[in-house]
Amino acid sequence: MKTWQMRCCRLWRWNKMPKLNNFFDKTETVEKILTKKMHPQLVSIKNLEESKLQYRDIPQEDVEKLADLIELDGEVLQPLLVRKAGGDTYEILAGHKRYRACRYLNEKGLKQFSMIPCYVKSMTDAQAEFAVYSTNGYNRKTDYEIMREVEGMSRLLKENPELFPEAASGRLVEKLASIMNMSKTVVQEYKTIANNLSDDAMEKFKKDEITKESAKTLAALNNEEQAKVLSTGAVKTNEIKQAVAELKEPSNKDIELAYHHITSGLNMKKYVPGSVFENYLKDRCGRSHQYYGGTGLSFDCSLRGVAINRRKEITWHDFVSRAEKLGLYKPYDYVTESVTKNEPEEQLPGQDSILNHPEYLPDDNAISDNDKSENKEHEADNENKVRNEYLTDKLSGVKAIGRCPKCLGAVAYLTNPMCCGKCGYKLDWTFAK
């Protein structure tokens, strides 16, 4: 046999093989697949009851429009899918709108619609619930209804794997997700909403008052936080996201409690300016420092910052800035206090003080009146820059001696004070000419 003939034979056999895609072809509804090779039978409308599993709201306007079409046709062209519910009663699994339309016509006096064609199929509770979800698959749905389908199908497949052998390998779930145009990420988002959304938020989601994106944002909060966001009246997605962001930001009370706890027992004069305090917080608290107290305070620290009372983490720089704005951290007060008390500064091991060597200090009394007048003239131009007196290499560790631009008192670069020891004037160690 020639090569082209062999290829044609293989292609013919391939086309004759049943394809799984045909099972999910959109031209053939799930309802038809479930009732394939079944023959309908007429069931009295009095013996039919709607399934409690049905979650879709059917507007009366849609029911009346369908009733007009059925009346024009003279019969129900597509039978309902039902199962035995006990005695002569049947539970409707698919065709709730057709049932309501026939009931509407029957109430109008059209008795020919008192008997409805139905496919009667034996199903377990799990199979019946799955059929309700799957037969609604082609109708236009809200995000809430899609969530119900995803959550319900996921639960049924997880709890009853033996009833859905085709889904054991996951292929059925993938096909359903493909038909519904959903990725695994979107499926997970719907499951998160179903598991974590509060009752009030779920009711708004059901009524389509909030979007799926808003529901997903709310689902990341606990029930109390969700109630606070909804109490603001936010319904639009950007409004809800803004309310959540403000809720996650630590309050002034949180900052105050954490600040007082962290700085308890500290001599804050050592932690000036703010950058020094930030470095202390990183070194002291930033290494897995956690606190859970009974005073309404808990925080979790890292090298980046601190998360207070389970709120959003803020950086140590922001923490110090907010503490300063609230009047908790007062660096200039600490500096003034240390200058006023004239307390000696701590020295590092091996460091010498210029005060121990008066021979290198300039004599304040030796300054002439002319020098003082010249200094006053240059004070406006030089602002708070330290006036360079002289450099020396005679004393190890001493690089420069200068004078305060305000009182002309001697200052040493070795100790590098922020303020003049005599008048408390703030110093800038960029030497003035």
Task: Spell out the key features of this protein.
about 425 residues; alpha+beta; Conserved hypothetical protein from pyrococcus furiosus pfu- 392566-001, ParB domain; four-stranded antiparallel sheet; 18 helices; about 15% strand; ParB/Sulfiredoxin_sf; Chromosome_partition/occlusion; ParB-like N-terminal domain-containing protein; ParB_N
- Per DSSP, the total helix count is 18
State the shape: rod-shaped
Radius of gyration: 40 Å
CATH fold-type name of one domain: Conserved hypothetical protein from pyrococcus furiosus pfu- 392566-001, ParB domain
**Main sheet makeup:** 5 strands, mixed
- Alpha-beta classification: alpha+beta
Using the 3D structure, state the CATH architecture of one domain.
Alpha-Beta Complex
| Separation of the first and last Cα atoms | 104 Å
Q: Which range does the strand content fall in?
A: 5-15%
The order of strands across the largest sheet is 1-5-3-4-2
Round the mean pLDDT to the nearest integer and report it: 72
CATH class of one domain: Alpha Beta
The CATH homologous superfamily of one domain is named Conserved hypothetical protein from pyrococcus furiosus pfu- 392566-001, ParB domain
Beta-strand segment tally: 13
Low-pLDDT residue spans? 10-28, 335-343, 378-382, 390-399
Estimate percent helicity: 40-55%
Write the layout of secondary structure elements.
Blueprint: H1 3-16, H2 20-23, H3 30-34, E1 41-44, E2 48-50, H4 60-73, E3 80-86, E4 89-94, H5 96-107, E5 115-120, H6 125-135, H7 143-159, H8 171-179, H9 184-196, H10 199-206, H11 212-219, H12 223-231, H13 237-248, H14 252-262, H15 274-284, E6 290-292, E7 298-301, E8 305-308, E9 314-315, H16 316-325, H17 331-341, H18 369-382, E10 385-391, E11 400-403, E12 410-412, E13 428-432
Parallel strand pairs: 2-4, 3-5, 10-13
Antiparallel strand pairs: 1-5, 3-4, 6-7, 7-8, 8-9, 10-11, 11-12
Helix pairs in contact: 4-5, 6-7, 7-9, 9-11, 11-13, 12-13, 15-16
